[in-house]
Design brief:
The protein is of the alpha+beta class and about 280 residues long. It has six helices and 14 strands. The strands form three sheets. The chain has a six-stranded antiparallel beta sheet, with helices on both faces. A four-stranded mixed beta sheet has the order 7-11-12-14, with no helix packed on it. The longest helix has 12 residues. It is elongated and about 75 Å long. The termini are far apart.
Length: about 280
C-alpha cells in the first residue's frame, strides 16, 4: 500500500476537503500512485515500526516542555510529537513523523509571526489537519479502526557535577545582576578585580583543568537577599546550574544596607554550554 493510499485508509470518513486533497495528490490510477508503485517516496513511512528510543531521546533533550511533552505512535507507522512550554518564543511545536526522525511529514510551530505549518509530504496534510483538530482526543480523531499508542517519555537523566566553593558573599563589587562562566585566567582576573576590588589577589585556579561559574544578584535594597548555587549537573549536551535566589517577605525585618549577593564556585573544565536555572525563595 502506498503512503497516499494509506492516508486515504486512515482518513476514512474524514471531511470531504481532506478526501479531495488526497485525490488531488494522486488518486487511484493517478501519477502519484504510479510513482509510489515504483518505490517508497521521500519521507514516506516504509512499513517499519518507528524507532521509539530515538524519539524518546529527542523528547528528553528538548527545551520548553514544562506544559506538554508527549509522543503518540499511530498504527505502528508514524509518530506524533506534541510539546509546549512557558517560553517567550517557540513556545510549542507539533510534528508528525514517519518511522524515523529524518522522516518529517508535517509540523506546526510557534513563531514571532504566529503559527507556521509546513508539510514536507503534501499528501500527509489532510491527516495532519485531522490530528491537529483532535489532538486532545485519545484517538486523535482517527477512529476505533486505527491504533494510537502513547510512548512513555521518562524524565531525562542528569549526571551531577562536583564543584568547590570559591567565594560567597553579600558584598560583591559587581553591581549588575548576571551569571558568568569563566574558562581562562585573564577573564578570571578581570572578574575577580570587579568582584573583590582592584588589586585583590585572586585564588589560584588551574584553567587547564578547571573553570569558574558565578551568580551575581546585583545591588539589592536590604540584607535579606542572597544567592546560592545548589547544584551543577550534566543534562544531555549542556551543563545546568541550579541556584536559589532568596528575598524577604513583607513581614520580615531586614538590615537596610544595600547588598550585592554573589556565589562563585570552581569545577572541572568543560566546553559544554552552561544553562543557569534560578529558583526564587521567599523568606518568612
Amino acid at each position: 500500500m502506498s503512503f497516499t493510499q494509506y492516508l486515504k485508509h486512515v482518513l476514512g470518513g474524514a471531511a470531504l476537503a481532506g478526501a479531495a486533497l488526497l485525490a488531488g495528490c494522486g488518486g487511484a490510477g493517478g501519477a502519484a500512485d504510479r510513482q509510489a508503485g515504483q518505490g517508497i517516496a521521500v519521507g514516506e513511512p516504509n512499513g517499519a515500526m518507528p524507532v521509539t528510543a530515538e524519539f524518546v531521546a529527542k523528547a528528553q533533550e528538548a527545551t520548553c516542555t514544562d506544559l506538554r511533552n508527549r509522543l503518540l505512535m499511530i498504527d505502528k507507522r508514524m509518530v506524533y510529537w506534541d510539546r509546549a512550554g512557558n517560553c517567550p518564543d517557540n513556545g510549542y511545536a507539533r510534528t508528525l513523523y514517519g518511522a524515523t526522525l529524518q522522516q518529517t511529514l508535517c509540523s506546526v510551530s510557534d513563531s514571532i509571526a504566529g503559527p507556521r505549518t509546513v508539510c514536507a509530504e503534501e499528501s500527509a496534510r489532510a491527516l495532519f489537519n485531522t490530528i491537529e483538530a483532535n489532538r486532545d482526543k485519545a484517538d486523535l480523531g482517527l477512529g476505533s479502526t486505527h491504533q494510537v499508542e502513547t510512548i512513555s517519555v521518562p524524565p531525562r537523566a542528569s549526571a551531577p557535577v562536583a564543584f568547590k566553593p570559591l567565594d560567597q558573599t553579600t558584598r560583591s563589587g559587581v553591581q549588575l545582576a548576571q551569571t558568568v562562566t569563566v574558562r581562562d585566567a585573564a577573564a578570571f582576573a578581570a572578574l575577580w578585580s570587579a568582584h573583590a576590588g582592584p588589586g585583590a589577589v585572586s585564588p589560584p585556579v588551574d584553567f587547564s583543568r578547571d573553570m569558574v561559574i558565578a551568580v551575581f544578584l546585583g545591588a539589592q535594597p536590604n540584607g535579606c537577599h542572597a544567592t546560592n548555587i545548589d547544584s551543577v549537573s550534566r543534562v544531555s549536551d549542556k551543563l545546568r546550574v541550579q541556584h536559589t535566589d532568596s528575598y524577604p517577605g513583607p513581614a520580615v525585618l531586614c538590615t537596610m544596607a544595600i547588598t550585592t549577593p554573589a556565589h562563585l564556585v570552581v569545577l572541572d573544565r568543560s566546553n559544554l554550554p552552561v544553562e543557569f536555572v534560578a529558583q526564587k525563595k521567599l523568606i518568612g
